[in-house]
Design brief:
The complex is a heterodimer of chains A (about 280) and B (about 230).
Chain A (H helix, E strand, L loop, with lengths): L1 H21 L9 E7 H5 L2 H13 L2 E7 L1 H9 L5 E4 L2 H9 L3 E17 L11 H11 L3 E3 L5 H12 L9 E3 L4 H10 L4 E4 H7 L5 E5 L6 E9 L9 H11 L2 H9 L2 H4 L5 E2 L11
Parallel strand pairs in A: 1-2, 1-3, 5-6
Antiparallel strand pairs in A: 3-9, 4-7, 4-8, 4-9, 4-10
Helix pairs in contact in A: 3-10
Chain B lengths: L1 H15 L3 H34 L5 H11 L4 H12 L14 H25 L3 H9 L4 H11 L1 H16 L3 H7 L9 H10 L3 H32 L1
Helix pairs in contact in B: 1-11, 2-5, 2-8, 3-5, 4-5, 4-9, 5-8, 5-9, 6-7, 8-11, 10-11
The chains are: A alpha/beta (about 280), B mainly alpha (about 230).
Chain lengths: ~280, ~230
């Protein structure tokens, strides 16, 4: 009878040993920094192309956290990330003004698109972003919002404000989820939604949504890199932050960004903008 | 429907072609969840026996706590562990956040209450006469305890399976504490979530099927141990 107990104990020990033995295989402490960025850079696959090149060029390993822009800024504020790649310009400016961040540089842009069912019950097709949103609100057509303080959600709220609408009621639905999940929910509900173009293109085959409004200057989606400093926390690594920020605006990285997506979508997903001024974009 | 069949085909293809990433993710999933289960057993077995047999104040409250802990939401555990391990947190100096070790800690925290609660039940349902008899036969404390555990081995193995099932299938804590980093902390559940948000449904389903497969393999092993011993008697 005791054999059974021994067997269990032996199994336990074996599993524990296996776990411990394999655990520290990651190697000696290499230089490693934390990048907090948005889901769109991960879901579109851009990070998978950029980060290995960055590591090759500089020796820095990157722990990339793909979260909403709101959470990314908060992680920076608390000193839990070294560098941020985000797309929520108004919130970023307020954040930089707080004084814990270092340099903020323009990296790239793409654009937001207003999507909806092909039947377009609100008649938003072909209108500018603000006007289209006003039509949707007037028609009380289903609009599916990210509702997660992401850069996309911030832009959506900005458009509602400009349209003079305070969205609410049963037609306005908030998912609190990432772009991919929100797109699918909008598709299932025959609703309208605002998406970054990269995520939409990556998933468009599975979606019953069409682009109804695009190309408006108010729909530009602009990404900045923000370096954090020791003012945010003792353990922030400003050298890593600077290395990443300088690399991503350097010609080789900008070249990678310019070509990203061509193979899969037949067109690039992002426009590299290093060194340009924000006001000159999309002219 | 098509996407399910595509997923099955994709799972078979990934496994058959020895896709390195898939194997690495699968191996990490097993390593993290089995280690967490083992840690939970090491902590939970003595605690569970103590709660079941001990006579001390607060025993029932502790048991109720363990029973509540069986439903501990992984996201909540993940959040607590993350805040503790933050650079600015009390354990930030350990540099454990976004490592497999941190995932093991979080998953062990999820599994331990399950082990405590189920072990307590397992031990309590053994006939109280049994211990008295063992002692009457001259067995020492340790021997009679081992005999007791052996008597309760079926529910004890069930507790192990429940603990493993809870941690291998959770995604909230693994995502938050591990960060879903390629080649470092990506496990089958977080890989499936990422594939879904990328619109790669067949790949996501493939990961799901592989997860089911390894959960079945582990539970089959444990069940065979459990049932063979029964047949011996």
């Amino acid at each position: 009878m005791r054999r059974a107990v021994h067997l269990v104990v032996a199994l336990l020990a074996a599993v524990l040993l296996a776990g411990c033995g394999a655990a520290p295989a990651a190697g000696p402490a290499e230089r490693s920094l934390i990048l907090a960025t948005t889901t769109s850079t991960q879901d579109s696959g851009l990070l998978d192309e950029l980060l290995p090149e960055f590591t090759r060029a500089t020796g820095w390993q990157v722990t990339a956290l793909a979260v909403g822009s709101g959470q990314a800024l908060e992680l920076g504020r608390r000193g839990e990330a070294d560098v941020l790649l985000v797309h929520s310009p108004a919130a970023e400016e307020a954040f930089v003004a707080e004084g814990t961040a270092g340099a903020r540089r323009l990296v790239m842009h793409n654009d937001f698109v207003l999507l909806g069912p092909d039947a377009d019950p609100a008649g938003a097709r072909g209108l500018g972003g603000v006007e289209a949103m006003a039509r949707i609100a007037a028609a009380q057509a289903v609009f599916v919002s990210r509702g997660d303080d992401s850069g996309t959600h911030a832009r959506e709220k900005d458009l509602w404000t400009k349209a003079g609408v305070a969205p609410g009621g049963s037609w306005y639905q908030s998912t609190g989820q990432g772009m991919g999940a929100t797109l699918r929910i909008a598709g299932e509900k025959d609703g309208y939604t605002l998406s970054d173009r990269a995520t939409y293109l990556a998933q468009r085959e599975a979606l019953p949504l069409t682009v109804l409004s695009e190309g408006d200057r108010g729909l530009l989606n602009i990404y900045h890199v923000i370096e954090m400093t020791r003012r945010a926390g003792d353990r922030v690594q400003p050298e890593g932050a600077t290395a990443f920020a300088e690399w991503i605006v350097s010609p080789p990285a900008q070249e990678l960004i310019a070509r990203f997506g061509e193979a899969r979508f037949g067109r690039p997903l992002f426009v590299p903008d290093a060194g340009k001024s924000e006001a000159a974009l999309g002219g | 429907m098509d996407v399910l069949l595509d997923g099955l085909a994709e799972a078979l293809r990934l496994l058959a072609t020895g896709d390195e990433d898939t194997w690495a993710i699968t191996a990490l999933t097993l390593r993290v969840s089995l280690t967490a289960t083992a840690v939970a057993l090491l902590l939970g077995l003595p605690l569970g026996v103590g709660v079941a047999l001990g006579r001390f104040p607060g025993r029932r409250v502790l048991l109720a706590g363990a029973n509540t802990g069986m439903g501990l939401p992984p996201v909540v555990v993940g959040l607590f562990v993350t805040v503790l391990l933050w650079r600015s947190g009390p354990l930030g100096g350990l540099d454990l956040l976004y490592t497999p070790t941190a995932m093991i800690v979080a998953q062990a925290a999820i599994a331990t209450p399950i082990v405590v609660a189920l072990v307590a039940v397992a031990v309590q349902q053994v006939d109280p006469e049994f211990r008295i008899q063992m002692q009457g036969l001259g067995a020492g404390r340790l021997r009679s305890l081992l005999a007791l555990l052996s008597e309760a081995r079926l529910p004890l193995l069930a507790a192990t399976m429940a603990a493993f099932g809870a941690v291998v299938s959770e995604v909230g804590a693994a995502q938050m504490v591990g960060g879903n980093l390629v080649g470092q902390t990506r496990v089958l559940t977080t890989a499936a979530v990422l594939a879904t948000s990328r619109g790669q449904f067949a790949l996501a389903i493939a990961f799901g099927l592989i997860l089911l497969g390894i959960a079945f393999a582990v539970n089959l092993t444990l069940t065979l141990v459990q049932q063979r011993r029964t047949a011996d008697r």
